[in-house]
Please model this.
Amino acid sequence: MPLYAYQAVDNSNKTVKGSVNAHTQEEAEAQIREKGLFPISIRAKAKGSSFLSFFTLSQKVTKKDLLGFTIQLHLMFTAGLPLVDSLKSIAEQSKNPKLKELVGDIGKKVETTGSFSEAIAAHPEVFPPFYLGAVRAGETGGTLPEMLDHLAESLEKQEELQSEMKQALIYPMMIMFVMSAVTGFYAFYLMPKMMVMVEELGAPVPFYTRAIQFIVNTILALWIPLVVLIIGGVVATLIYGRSESGAYNLSTLKLRLPLLGALMQKSVLCSFAHYLALLLQSGFGLLASLDLVKGTIGNPNIVRSIETMEERIRRGESFAESMRGLLFPGFMVTMIGLGEQTGKVPEQLARINGFFEKDVRRTTKAVLTILEPLILIVFGGISAVILMSTFIPMYSALGQVK
Model:
């Protein structure tokens, strides 16, 4: 009998996690409801993994696919087309075979269970916890079309912000790649050939040129062990990053990176405020919303901070008080405190999200302003040193020939 893991909330909006044995997902939900719980997500636990699992359906459905699916479903649903027919239409029009298969499976489950949230709950790796929670709230309150609209807007904003950040970083990465290629060409191809000519002409070789020659020759002699070492280091880092402590430590290291660390932290806080505002506006309690955001945010540092907040709130602290001393800036704590006093926490979170969106764009521009000339100076300086150490003795050698 399959084992189903679930997240649910009780009558006091406390999050409950557990697992039940059931023949089907519907039977699992029935058992959960018999316990007096409202299920947020239900998924079958995998019995094992294999190499083929790397190529599963969920890993082929991108965030852009999810955004397009949500927008199309909202438009068709609000136009009066029944949910099942809307899903069939989206599946037929989809050019991505994996998305087509996914939507087709959802449509079949909706026909069987009559519940859209139950259907997407079977694909938690495609539909993040906040998405499932918002859909459940929309179905319960009879506001599914409006909720789909909010979800589409939410996903679009996040996708737009992430896309802007990626596009902004492409240019400096291209500069770094080109400068690395040029430097490598000078050091490993041009310099050895020119130094052979200098030695044949019998010209003296300066000490700084010999030092650079030693470094280049060492790298050329040990390139195979160096490549193996680099690949091994990357693999070891990936394996280490899969452990709980490793993921947390690597995340901490990323947030402490010069220039990029602050940008990453602001981006994560922007997502946190955005998703939490959406769930609170949907009618979820604070603890249930925090738990759903925790399963969506993906950053181990923020996840650990959220877990600390949940513990403090259960002890009786307010939302704002639970954030103190964690990764949240002071102005954010102050605004949340004002929201609690006025009963407008979701609105304050929306304002915080708006601030972070603008701040992420400003920080991205500031980082690029510093990063681009820094790359040029570093790689240009290395190339200049190599060229000077090569052409100076070459010039001396040619002078002796005259």
